[in-house]
Amino acid sequence: MKNAILIGGDERTLEVYKTLKSLNYCVDTLGLTSNDNGDITKADICIFPVPTTKDGVTVFCPLTQKQIPLSIIEFAKPDAKIICGRYTFKERPSTDVCELDSYALLNAVPTAEGAIMKAIELTPFTLWKSKVLVIGYGRVGKVLCDRLAGLKCDVTVSARKTKDFAMLDALGIKHIKTSDVFSKSQNFDIIFNTIDVPLFTENLENLKNVFLIDLSSKGCIDFKLAENLKITAVKLPAIPGKIAPVTAGKILAITVLELISD
């Protein structure tokens, strides 16, 4: 049986640990619990968290606040399998689970549910019959659009690709070009953004009566400016690990097991 080590991570990583242990893997941890001291030099499989890092210098260790440098990878076995999240090591071959459809598509489910939960909390009206715009028709956009339609929202999707417009037409979903989002934003009650493009940079008056929920990594708006203008704009990073860590952890565990077996 090969040795695995989990380095850093949150509740999702704990779920991966439980899953591997239940399958009788020899697994150790470092930076996941307060007293752990796993040895990366003995590991055949090195599993880093999602995200692997937030500062580009140390491993993400929210449960212990340990300072584990990313350079720890230098001590891993030359042939060790390295699994990361939203990061790849330049020094060593590694796999970013977030780039895998098998992970990202399933992970879009808790992301969409968390976004909808936030929308219900923010708004003084029902989602039912609300005019909702979903910016982007990628993995998260597709799942979010499906869930919102199920709630009987009046859904419009913005996209760029001809194939996306064709699919939206086939499904009977209204759509606009992403380049037209800024000029048409005032036509909606709620906007969910899923893409890393600064769409709202000036003349934010269009958003005065709109609730904007940003699910992208970099953000689509200047949040400080929006706050000054009393525009309701919230950023929701890393939703799965916050609102559904058990489910998100099981999804991550399934992906890790697939990579290990491969």
Write the layout of secondary structure elements.
Blueprint: E1 3-7, H1 11-22, E2 26-30, E3 45-47, E4 81-84, E5 95-96, H2 101-122, E6 131-135, H3 139-150, E7 154-159, H4 162-171, E8 174-177, H5 181-184, E9 190-193, E10 211-214, H6 223-228, E11 232-235, H7 239-243, H8 245-261
Parallel strand pairs: 1-2, 1-3, 3-4, 4-5, 6-7, 6-9, 7-8, 9-10, 10-11
Helix pairs in contact: 1-8, 2-3, 2-8
Return the string of H and E elements.
EHEEEEHEHEHEHEEHEHH
> How would you characterize the largest beta sheet?
6 strands, parallel
Count of DSSP H/I helices: 8
**Oligomeric status:** single chain
Which stretches are poorly predicted, pLDDT < 50 over at least 5 residues? Answer: none
Overall geometry: elongated
Percent range of helical residues: 25-40%
Coarse structural class: alpha/beta
- N-to-C terminal Cα separation, in Å? 15 Å
Return the average pLDDT rounded to an integer: 94
For the largest sheet, list the strands in their spatial order: 8-7-6-9-10-11
Could you tell me the strand content as a percent range?
Answer: 15-25%
Radius of gyration: 20 Å
Number of strands: 11
Description of the structure:
The chain has helices spanning 11-22, 101-122, 139-150, 162-171, 181-184, 223-228, 239-243, 245-261; strands at residues 3-7, 26-30, 45-47, 81-84, 95-96, 131-135, 154-159, 174-177, 190-193, 211-214, 232-235. It is elongated. The strands form 2 sheets. The chain has a 6-stranded parallel sheet with strand order 8-7-6-9-10-11. A 5-stranded parallel sheet has the order 2-1-3-4-5, with helices on one face. It is α/β, with parallel strands linked by helices and 262 residues long. It is built from 8 helices and 11 strands. The mean pLDDT is 94. 40% of the residues are buried. Helix 1 crosses helix 8. The two termini are 15 Å apart.
